[in-house]
Structure formats: C-alpha cells, structure tokens
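We read letters as residues; the fold follows as tokens. Both lines appear below.
***
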Amino acid sequence: MPKDRIIADDFLIFTPDDVDLARSPLRGMGLDAPTVVLGAFNPGMTRLANGNLLLMVRVAEALADPDGRAMRWADGRVHLDAWPADRVDMSDPRILKLKDEAWTPLALTSLSWLLPVELSPDGSGVAAVHYDRAIAPSASYQSYGIEDARISHVGGRYWMTTCSVSAERLCTVLYSSPDARDWRREGIVLDHQNKDMLVFEGQIAGKFWAQTRPLGETWFAYPPDSEWRAGPAIQLASSPDMIHWKPCDHPGLRPHAATVSTARMGGGAPPILIDDGWLSLWHGVEPGGDVGIYRTYWSILDRDEPWKVVRTDHDALIEPAPDLTAAFQDSKYLDHVVFSTGIVDRGDHYLVASGEADLVCRMTRIPKDRFA
C-alpha cells in the first residue's frame, strides 16, 4: 500500500473551549481562584454497551495567574502553594522548577482530572458530557493530578489505567467498572515512575497482560553492531487478577538503531487482537525542540508470545498535525506532538483517539489495510 495513504480522515472532537469550568469537580474542593483549561487531551477510549464511544479526557485545569503558586490536592481540598520567586524557575508557566534542590523537583500550576465525554458510535460527534461522573484526585498519591487514561474491556469488565502524580511517587493507578460509567479506584498497581501501562484487550493463556514503560536514570549500552539502541523501552507484565503484576522475562518493544524517531518510546493505545496477532500502537520521540517530535507507530505482536514482533514499520502511522490546532495558536505551548491513547474497531477501519499538542482531542480513521 502506498505510504502516502496513511491517514484516511482526521479531525478534532473535543477542545479546551468545550470544557465548562463552572462544573469542574475542583470547584467543590475549595478552589476559588480563577482558572483556565491548559488542555483537554490524551483521551482513553472504549465502546459502551449502547454502542456509543466513551472518551476519558484529561483536563488540565490551571491557575489563570500562577504568580509563583502551585495547585495541589490534599485531604479533600485544593491548596495553592506559594513559592518564593528566588527558589523557582517559571520559564514554563505550567511548571515550577525548584532550582535550589539537587534533583530539581517540580510543582504544577495545574491539576489534571478526567472528564467522561460520550460520542456517537462513529466518533464524529459529542452525545453527552458527564461532569457528574468526572474523576478527580482522591488519594495522597494523586496530589498533583490524574493523567492519561487508557481503557480496556477484558473479562466482562472495564479496566482503566491512569498516571497519578505526587511528591510521594509517580505511579500507575487502576480503576475498574462494570459499565465504564461508575468507576472504582483499585489503587496503585505499578510504581517506579511507570507512566504508560496498557492492558491487552483479551487474555493470553488465562492471564491478563499489559505493556509497561518503567523509567530510570541509567541505561546500559547494547553492542556497537546491535539493531537496538539503549533507552526507555516498552516492557511487558502479566497478572492473574489485574492487581498483582509480574514483569515478563523477555524484552518488549525496544528503540531501534535504524531510526532516530525512537530515541524515546512508550505505549499508546491498548493492544487489540486482530487476525495476525496483537495490534499495538505506540509513540516514538525524535529529538528536537523542548520535548521532541512525538509520532504514533505500530507493531503486530505474536498472539501467544507478545514479546515477539510479527510485523512493524519504521514509518509513522500518525504524524503531528499543527494545522489542526491553528485556531488555538495563542494558547499552544507545544507543537509537533501527537500522543495516541485509544483505538476501536469500526468495520473497514480503526478509529484512533489521540492528544494533539497536549491541547486537544484528535480522532483519526485508519484503513485496516494499512497494517497488511
């Protein structure tokens, strides 16, 4: 298939302008300072029993005038922490960097929470926005917010992994639901700064499987002639019950030496089972600018041994599309970032949900023969 036929259709479905901050769950937690939406992005996606699609949108709600203050949740309330100007670097208005400490810890001028947005079955329109079912911080390990949901439907139940951020730790927190409407927080399932946990939509040999992405400060080199490059990689883990996870002894998806586009990489959408194996969408990052260029790539993994790659492609599946966010130019902090977080089967194509520019929710229709 010609490589220029990558994207069949591409559009925005939810933006910061669509968020009603008067209905924010933080307003019931003592927040009375003026706020803005920095982004409504990186949506987890699944199909509901009624046929509609559900997005769990990350809403980054920020102080309109940070003035050296950070937002933090504790004991059921939102607190504003004022930091002395000589202690912080605020060159990025979203982040306060404590420049007088050895590890340069961060504080945030925003708190992220999850907003359920129900779409039509084809994903082309918003059917309802469920503010009454929003998920806000509710534990000490979520004091700086809840980020980047991924949703899988396995064993008759919906499972949602999220990244929770706090001074205590940066960890993966699991939620479960019988219907993807009423969610129960199951607690921390992965620690050690594991930001991208994606549960396979189906079991392998009676076990749940997931892709993970542990971070670290030390990476050991492969041999000079290796096809792999050292750095963050997508690993695997299995579980008998979705709560207790054992890392896989085999390596998962690793940065390839043949391309600079995977200098960093991490999980994207939860793997789904197709005829040839597990279709896995993931992100690769090419160095450049402040955060690099984020693109979406794909691999097909063996259905019984998911550490084995059946087929993959060094060409990007989804590229950043700055033209899609041209109307938000005045409020953009990033460009050249697409971060895919959900996929559903739509018959002759797949519908992929992504965050674009850490700002908006983007939908992309991908023809199934793209993976042939």
